[in-house]
Design brief:
Elements (H helix, E strand, L loop, with lengths): L5 H43 L6 H19 L1 H6 L9
Helix pairs in contact: 1-2
């Protein structure tokens, strides 16, 4: 059975904290980009497509734009999870 000395425990803790910090930074970046993408879709819908006064039409347009962007960012998502969705959205 191996014994762990203080130096080895410190090394393990440093490795763990660096990986945890990297994961936290990646999570924050992903959330930031998702928020930016959502804001840009909403801005585009409200400024460029103002001719659609019907709320339902605006909702359908936003959903179509979001689906196109999602499939562009994550191309494997369309194959695995969205097999029952209408491809003409």
């Amino acid at each position: 059975m191996k014994t762990l000395d203080a130096e080895r425990i410190r090394d393990i803790a440093e490795e763990f904290t660096s990986k945890a910090m990297l994961a936290a930074m990646a999570t924050l970046c992903i959330r930031f980009f998702m928020a930016c993408m959502t804001a840009s879709v909403r801005f585009y819908t409200m400024t460029e497509m103002t001719s659609f006064s019907c709320i339902y039409a605006q909702k359908r347009i936003v959903n179509r734009i979001v689906h196109h962007r999602k499939f562009a960012l994550f191309p494997g998502y369309a194959k695995h999870n969205c097999s029952n969705e209408n491809p003409n959205l």
